[in-house]
Design goal:
Elements (H helix, E strand, L loop, with lengths): L2 H30 L3 H9 L6 H41 L7 E6 L2 E6 H44 L8
Antiparallel strand pairs: 1-2
Helix pairs in contact: 3-4
């Protein structure tokens, strides 16, 4: 008795899903398609890709991937520094006579409060240096990427998309 109703509901859900997938596909295509003017402009002055152009494109791609990994590493270091600052603030509330468990590797060692605060300070400074080093690398990568963008856009104009 309920089987035909369930079949109708399943068919309606399937049709709804198909129409949604078709709309998503159309919207994706619309975003990627050139306008008629852009198509004429891009097709009219199509330039041959030379070996040095391909090398620049490949270099840009590698730099972009490196930029992403450096940003992730930088984000991780900022989080680690923030966590150490939080722990340092919590330790200000502890008694000086207490032994504080401090993680070294995979184990915890109970140390006096002053020694733990010194170790936290050292770790925070080390992470600060790592952050500065990563920011310098990221700046260098971005500068080189922007120079490659200038070169490639000068050669190919709107025929190439280097926006990240």
């Amino acid at each position: 008795m309920f089987a035909p109703f369930a079949r109708i509901v399943n068919i309606q859900i399937l049709e709804l899903w198909k129409s949604h997938a078709l709309l998503a596909q159309k919207s994706t295509m619309q975003r990627r398609m050139l306008s008629k003017e852009d198509e004429v402009t891009a097709g009219g002055d199509e330039k041959e890709v030379r070996r040095e152009d391909q090398d620049k494109i490949n270099r840009f791609s590698r730099l972009h991937q490196r930029e992403i990994s450096l940003e992730e590493e930088l984000k991780s270091k900022h989080k680690e520094k923030e966590d150490l600052d939080d722990v340092s603030n919590e330790l200000e509330l502890a008694d000086e006579d207490d032994l504080i468990p401090y993680k070294i590797g995979d184990s915890f060692i109970s140390l006096p409060l002053t020694e733990v605060q010194e170790m936290l300070s050292t770790s925070t400074e080390r992470i600060g240096e790592d952050v500065e080093r990563l920011e310098e690398k990221l700046t260098g990568v971005r500068e080189e990427m922007s120079q490659l963008k200038v070169d490639l856009y000068a050669r190919f104009g709107r025929s190439i998309n280097l926006e990240t």
